[in-house]
Amino acid sequence: MIRHSISTLMMSLLLLTSMLSIADTHLAVVAVEDKSFPQVEIFDATVEAIHHSTISSRISAEVIELNFDVNDVVPKDALIMQFRDEEFQARVAQIQASLLVDTAQAREAVARQKEASSEEKRVRNLFKRKLLAQAALDTAIANLTASNAKVQAVQAQRKAHLAQLDEAKVQLSYTKIVAPYSGVVTERFIELGEMVSPGQNLMTGISLNSLRAVVKVPQYLLSIIQSAKAPVLTLIDGREIAGGKVVIIPQADVRSHSFKVRVDLPEGVENVYPGLFGKLQFVVGEELIRVVPQVAIVQRSEVSGIYVKTENTLTFRQVRLGRVLADGQREVLAGLSVGEQVALDPMQAARMLKLNSSRSSL
Q: Which CATH number fits domain 42-52+209-286: 2.40.50.580, 2.40.30.170, 3.30.450.20, 2.10.10.90?
């Protein structure tokens, strides 16, 4: 009975010594707390080119010059290809010659009009003085009317020829295909020397300077995204690209009931190409998240845990973790309460706990 009492007393003293050693040993700790972080919504995104077009022919002609091929960089306003234009040049020259004739006819008609007008005034004065008959006055009036009509006819003819000249010059301009923007050729459908016809596709190109990210937003999140700020595209290599203008297509998909949202990317972003996959996030507000420092977390196989210190004890507790947040913080979904003290140095906490267990086993 005496030996049992002595053993019990010794174990109590050892346990008290162990608890006191944990309390007295310096172990850096931090309190679990709820912090405010931006609330974000993240969607799968695909990069696409804002300027993506296929040029086609508007005339029927032969290709006589072809300056670019697939994968070539095309500057803005560069001559991509040219068609044979002799026929169109001749049409322009023919109409210009007709305009010269119109100018000469107009001068003659105006001169005849002035002459007829003067003659009509002279005859009218003589008729008033009863020096000429009515027939002479009628003849003068008829001549003036005819000369006026001639002037109007020549002017109308000139306007028609001017319109034809504009049309001919437009047709002539179609013999040169000029790049509407700088970009890269992705497909070519024509060869040098071939005859093209109106509407035939010639070449496809895209601009790598102007890109955007496209996502599909569920119907229930549309109102939130409309007021969201600071969209950011994260690529699979970890790069983050700040988004710009946000455009919501005002039509839902009939099957998924989702809306297409486009976010413009900054111009000149390097190594970003149409078709790339990424994650696009929108800041939609603020939220309180329970966090602990990432350095306090211990990973043992598939178990995540944290050393929790109370007044006189130190325990290893399993927790369920969430997102990695800014400033080295980690979201805690379950296992900790606000105000609990966690060890910032898990290795030191493990040594202390092991030492405590060894003393307790004595």
A: 2.40.30.170
